[in-house]
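User: Round two. Same drill as before: sequence, then structure, for each protein.

Assistant: Same drill it is. First protein:
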Amino acid sequence: SENTVCPSPGAMSQALAKALPQAEGEGGSRRSSWGLLVTAGVGGTLVALYAVATPFVTPALRKVCLPFVPATAAQIQNVLKMLENRSGSLVDIGSGDGRIVIAAAKKGFQAVGYELNPWLVWYSRYRAWRDGVHQNTKFYISDLWKVSFSHYKNVVVFGVPQMMPQLEKKLEEELECNARIIACRFPFPCWIPDHTTGEGIDTVWAYDLKHSRGCETKSSEITPETES
């Protein structure tokens, strides 16, 4: 058999002393690499979450600060109540995630939503497809101030006080007198509502444009006066 030579304790100590720094260097390098990978992974995840979530909470209408706030179930039911016995086309101004448009489509309306936030528009289209009403709904990426609503008979608005005066003027100029405007959360400043339902943030006001001062003025302007 072959003879085995055992190293002396001194030689073993010297070899171990040389090996330890090398092992510690390799372990430190591995730990550093893992740290970089973890940091990059967490950072990437946060960036992705920010990219997805930011459009849902930042202003959707640039002219007025109007953040996305989803309609409550009570608000949706109140809007649908104001649409009873109504027909024709419907538009939701600032349609958000599309829940009002989808609810109206389920009631038989050809419903359209205008929303400046592209993420919300794409999500609305997905929800409409998922709920089986994509053929009765359309969603457009557009600024409400650059769109004419003249061919809609039913208009739903989730606005803020700062935008209501100018929007009131815009709708009065564009809509026909048989149109109904439904305001949620905040009423229009000058119009007197024909119907009101709900409480607090769920309050909904309905305005029949034929009863507004603007339409009465238009009617008097186009109606010839007769001499007595």
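Second protein:
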Amino acid sequence: VGNSSVLTCPPKSNITMVTWKISPKVGGPCALGYRADKNKTDRTNCSDSMNWKFRPDRDPALEIRRVGIAHEGSYTCEVAGTEGNFDETYDLTVLVPPRLTLYCDDHGNPVCEAAAGKPAAQISWVLENNSTPKEEGHDNGTVTVLSKFTAYSTNVTNTTCIVSHPAGNQSRSIAC
């Protein structure tokens, strides 16, 4: 989320027409088109964040700027040329890194929260404990995971929470 993404099309010489057909999971479909005989591009219902990466006659790649969850969906590039017709389909999944918070609750127990990540983060602790993480789903597809550290031994002073996520791992330590 927040980065740019470039989806490539089959590179062919003597392209006569290129069409990107986009079907997001949220909202209606859109399309970008290019006709070589008229050297003309066209767009239908596509947001400004989606456009050709370069000139479509040289490279028909699609660039999505500031990728958001709403960009998830199916992207198909269709190329027509003298060599025939070719297509390439992508299923775009957007990763959202969670916000990591580590704090002490009212009873002096460390609590680790990985908020609004997509997919849900995995929380673990450096020291062994008997915590069961709780998950809360949000309307936008993100998930908050909360884990409370409960030690087997009472002489634990400092503990570390580790959040594992496909968008990157994080860790924090706290003494409660």
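The chain has two domains: 5-92, 99-174.

User: Perfect.
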